[in-house]
Structure formats: structure tokens, C-alpha cells
Amino acid sequence: MRLTRGWAEAAAFVVLYETYETARGHIHPAAGPSLHHAETVVRVERAVGLYQEPRIQRAFIDHKTFMQFWDIYYGTIHFVVPAFALWLLWRRARHRYPQARNVFLLSCYLALLVFALWPLMPPRYMPVHYGFFDSGVRYGGLGPLDSGRTKDTNPFAAMPSLHIGWSVFSAWVLVRILRRRPLKVLAVLYPVVTLFCIVVTANHWILDAVGGLVTFGTALAVVMVTEHLWRRRRGGEERVEAHDGRILGPPGPSGREYPPVRARRGVASGLRRRSSGTNLHAR
């Protein structure tokens, strides 16, 4: 079977993503520093009025079916929506796909760096006196992707929250290519719903969500600046000099020079036009 461009892109993406997952699985931080960092997060959130995680979870923790839904959401939707967004982008706006792919993968590797340098204990692993519950353990797991090799092997990779980073990424992709306004609204609300999910299940702190947003924004900025510099560099290399000394731009999509060189009007053509005009007057 011939390897099409789509399959080649998919294969390259899977390899790079699996490299990230493998590296993440080999990070095994100690519980002590992770707890210390979590206590720092709690102090900061209390200082700025963001420490609402215990109150939110207590309001819903006794509703078993409700919590089971959010546990499954946490363990499945997080992976499904970004994959769908990238697939739809490839189908509808293929010229935008490389940028989105690079943003997604760079955000993963930026998060990987933070996971290694600043491990953070999520709320559900905190000491009992903080009042959090591990709803996944209490009510039966985080869905079908929370088993086997897909099971999280680094429990202290809470900062940044890629659930938020990926949901904002998905919204960024989908809003630009979805055609119906209700679907665009759902795409915008998706990160908000995901924020509620990660808090009510005690998988992340609210500051983790801020970290996920910063990670996405940093990846997007780096990719856009890199693309701009690359275009400028390529544009400078492809500028050519015309025979009369004028500087022309790079070739356009059709392979022609841009802007196109206007053909000089020859003497013969001018004589023909004047001759034609004379003949018209003679008639």
C-alpha cells in the first residue's frame, strides 16, 4: 500500500507523541517535594482567593452517578477531542494543520519539562486533613483509558494541566473551522467544562489550569514567531533581481514571480495601435 501524505503525517505525529508519553512515564518524582509544592500552591491560591477546590468537590462528592460521569470524562474526552480536532483540521483546512500539530506537540514537551523540574501532588493525593476524595478510587476508575499502558504512571504531574492546555488548543482549532455557530459556542465552552471536571474530581488545582493555559499560549507564541522568522528568511533568499535592477518578491503559488514583471510595450505594438486608430478615423 502506498504511503500517502496523510498516513505519513499520522505516523510522524504518533511517534512524536509516544516519545512524549514514554518520557513522561519514566519521570518518577518523590512524594516529599511534590507535597511541598502542593502546599505552596494552596498558600498562593488562598492568598489570591482561588482556593475553592475543597468546596466544589464537597458539593458533589456524594452524588455517585454524577461523579462517575466526570471521572470517565476525565479519562476519555481529554484524548478524544484533540485527536478529532486535528483530524477535522486536516480534512477542512490542511494548510493550517502543520501549525496546529506543532503547537500541540510543543505544549506536550513544555509540560514534560515542568513535570520533571517541578513535580506537583494533585488534590486527590493530599493528606486527609485537606478534605479531598479520590473519586476515581471511590467510584470505580477514570474510564476505559485508565488501564493497561494508558494508565497514568506519573501521579505527580499535575502542573501544568494538559487537560486545560489541550482543551484550549481544541477550542482554538475548532472555532476556526466549524461552520455552525452553536458548534462554535460548544467549542468555546469545552475548556470551561473541562475546568469543572478537573476540579470536582480533585485531579488538578485551579492554578494547574492557569499553567495549562500558559503552556498552550507559550507553545502558540513560539510556533508563530518561528514561522514568521522562517518566512522572512525564505523570502530574503528567494528575492531575485530583474534585468533592469528592480528587486522582485518570491515566487507566488503558481511559480510566477510576485509581483509580476509587467511586459514592456514595444515600439511595434504602439505603431499597430496608432495605425489601427488611424484606420478607424479614416472609416
Label this structure with key terms.
283 residues, mainly alpha, two-stranded antiparallel ribbon, 2 strands
Task: Describe this structure as you would to a colleague.
- The termini are far apart.
- The protein has a two-stranded antiparallel ribbon with strand order 1-2.
- 66% of the residues lie in helices and 1% in strands.
- It has 283 residues and is mostly helical.
- The chain is globular.
- The model is unreliable at 240-245, 251-258 and 263-283 (pLDDT under 50).
- β1 (240-241) and β2 form a beta hairpin.
- It has 2 domains: 5-234; 239-282, no CATH class.
- The chain contains 10 helices and 2 strands.
- The chain has helices at residues 5-25, 31-48, 53-60, 64-92, 97-117, 135-139, 162-177, 181-200, 206-238, 267-282; strands at residues 240-241, 247-248.
Main β-sheet description: 2 strands, antiparallel
User: What characteristic shape results from the CA principal axes?
Assistant: globular
Order of helices and strands: HHHHHHHHHEEH
What's the structural domain tally? 2
As a percent range, the share of helical residues equals 55-70%
Tally of strands: 2
Helix/strand/pairing category: mainly alpha
| Gap between N and C termini | 70 Å
Strand order of the largest sheet: 1-2
Count of discrete alpha- or pi-helical segments spanning 4 or more residues:
10
In terms of DSSP E residues, the strand content is: under 5%
| Quaternary assembly | single chain
| Average pLDDT | 85
Uncertain stretches of 5 or more adjacent residues: 240-245, 251-258, 263-283
Calculate Rg over CA atoms: 28 Å
